[in-house]
Structures are given as C-alpha cells and as structure tokens.
C-alpha cells in the first residue's frame, strides 16, 4: 500500500515521515520486508535529505496474519468500510478478543472476513473494543499504519464513544450528571472493579433521555476508558445497569445482559482529513424493555 506526502521543510526523510506517524518500527518493516521509499519517483533511503515541495512516497509491505488467531467465517454487520478502517455493529454475547473462555470472538470473525474478501493485509487491528455483553460500534484498522495513526488519537482521548444504558435505582437521578471517581480492582476478584481512592482517574458524563418510573434511559459519554467504567460508576451512584448481576443490576425486566450499547463512534480520519461519526439506534432487547415499561406505566 502506497502513501504520499509533500515535504514542507528541508530535512531527512525519516524526520518528515515521523510527523505522519510513521515510526522507526514501520520504517524498519519497509526496509527489511519488501517496502520502498521514493522521493520524486526515485528510490531513496530514510536518511535522504529532501527539500520543500519534494514528494515522498512509501510502499508499506502487506501484513501476514497472526497464525494463532483462528479465522471464523461469520456474517458481520458492517456499518462502514474503506481502505483503512472497518466499523462493525457488534452483537451482545460476543467477546472482542480470544481468551481462555472465549474463542468465537469479533477478532476471529474479522480475520475470516479479511480472508474471504482476499484483502492483502490480514492482521486484525482492534482500535476500540467492547465487553462481551455490550453491543454496538467497534472500530478496526485494516493495516498497521492506520492503527498507529488512531493510537495517537486514543492517547489524546479524541476518539469519542457514546453509549445508551438502562439503569435503575431509588431516589432521583439528575437529568445531567458527571461522575468523577477513581476505579480500582476489587480486592476479592480479578474480574470486578470498584470505586476506591487507590484506583485510576475515571470520568463519565451522562444525560437522561427518558424515564419510566425508576428506570432511566441514559446517554453516556466516556472521557476515560477504565475497565467496566460505566457499570462501576452507575452502581457507585446507586443506579446499576439493568441485567448487570455483577454490579447489582435488576434482573427482572427481561434483559439478561448488562443494558449497555455503544451508539456513537466519532474520530478524525487522517487519510481524508475529516472527522467522521457513525451512529446506531437502540437494540431490540432495549426496545422490548422500554415497550414493556411504557405499558406498565399507562
């Protein structure tokens, strides 16, 4: 895959490419695994000196797949796709990556999809992941360079994810809220988390979209990405998610997984130099709960 850049100042090729997120590691891959560097259509190396206006082109070699990741042919709900990124609607009940307990995961499905589509790059690059029982938008990079460029955005926290959740608790839930509370591992579990002063900074904001008695549909924005952050924060303020038995959520309203759905994903696409936003509506299980609650409240 070829990428072109125009030099805006004199300097070494590698210095100018670094400004476009081409790392030393990627330069080594270009050098030793079949890639090329061109300056004004003549092949050069990374220490070649360029002048203002010179056109630098890099050919990045194709990526071989990770052999340990088994490809699985499974239909995917593709929301958007181009040469660099793949956005999927992940169903609940499917893990993002393989583990001891999970082998039929989104990563396996995406590898199967890449092979079926006969794409030249077969490594799976997950940019944003979701818990197994959380549904909604997931972002994949289709090559390592695209992943590297979005990693910078992840570090700067400019990739925005918003979630719908159904929560329930006693008392009033403010129409707009901000939860800033550190999250740490639970002392008695390797899975659960808790709010504790020893934990890492965590920041969540929300808006109540609709209320059905003591159940509320909330629109949530994450400002940090701690494990189980939304689930822990809402349990902390006394409004755990429906279906979330791990954190005390109600299990009597017909939803058997934590009622959490990533409905909006927004990031700056560095290849078209525009911010792109993808959105989804509510899932069927969310809608079924809401319809039942509306009928009960009539």
TrEMBL record:
The keyword Isomerase applies. Its EC number is 5.4.99.-. GO terms for molecular function: catalytic activity, acting on RNA; pseudouridine synthase activity; RNA binding. The keyword RNA-binding applies. CDD domains: PseudoU_synth_RluA_like (cd02869). It holds the Pfam family PseudoU_synth_2. The active site is at residue 131. GO terms for biological process: enzyme-directed rRNA pseudouridine synthesis. InterPro entries: PsdUridine_synth_cat_dom_sf (IPR020103), PsdUridine_synth_RluA-like_CS (IPR006224), PsdUridine_synth_RluC/D (IPR006225), PsdUridine_synth_RsuA/RluA (IPR006145), RluA_PseudoU_synthase (IPR050188). Keywords: Isomerase, RNA-binding. It catalyses: a uridine in RNA = a pseudouridine in RNA. Residues 84-236 form the Pseudouridine synthase RsuA/RluA-like domain. It comes from the Bacteria. Responsible for synthesis of pseudouridine from uracil. Belongs to the pseudouridine synthase RluA family. This is Pseudouridine synthase. It comes from Streptococcus pluranimalium. The lineage of its organism: Bacteria, Bacillati, Bacillota, Bacilli, Lactobacillales.
């Amino acid at each position: 895959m070829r990428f072109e850049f125009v030099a805006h100042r004199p300097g070494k090729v590698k210095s100018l490419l670094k400004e476009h997120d081409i790392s030393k590691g990627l330069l080594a891959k270009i050098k030793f695994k079949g890639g090329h560097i061109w300056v004004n259509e003549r092949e050069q190396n990374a220490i070649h000196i360029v002048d203002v206006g010179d056109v630098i082109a890099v050919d990045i070699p194709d990526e071989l797949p990770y052999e340990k990741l088994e490809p699985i042919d499974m239909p995917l709900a593709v929301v958007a796709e181009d040469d660099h990124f793949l956005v999927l609607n992940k169903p609940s009940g499917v893990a993002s990556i393989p583990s001891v307990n999970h082998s039929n995961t989104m990563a396996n499905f995406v590898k199967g999809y890449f092979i079926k589509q006969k794409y030249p790059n077969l490594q799976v690059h997950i940019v944003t992941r979701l818990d197994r029982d959380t549904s909604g938008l997931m972002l994949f990079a289709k090559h390592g360079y695209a992943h590297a460029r979005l990693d910078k955005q992840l570090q700067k926290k400019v990739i925005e994810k918003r979630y719908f959740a159904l929560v329930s608790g006693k008392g009033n839930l403010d129409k707009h809220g901000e939860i800033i509370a550190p999250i740490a591992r639970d002392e008695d579990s390797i899975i659960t988390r808790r709010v504790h002063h020893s934990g890492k900074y965590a920041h969540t904001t929300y808006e109540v979209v609709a209320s059905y008695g003591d159940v509320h549909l909330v629109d949530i924005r994450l400002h940090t990405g701690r494990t189980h952050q939304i689930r822990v924060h809402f349990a902390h303020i006394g409004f755990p998610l429906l279906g979330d038995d791990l954190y005390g959520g109600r299990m009597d309203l017909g939803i058997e997984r934590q009622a959490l759905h990533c409905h909006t994903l927004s990031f700056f696409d560095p290849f078209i130099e525009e911010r792109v936003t993808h959105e989804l509506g509510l899932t069927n299980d969310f809608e079924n709960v809401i319809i039942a609650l509306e009928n009960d409240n009539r």
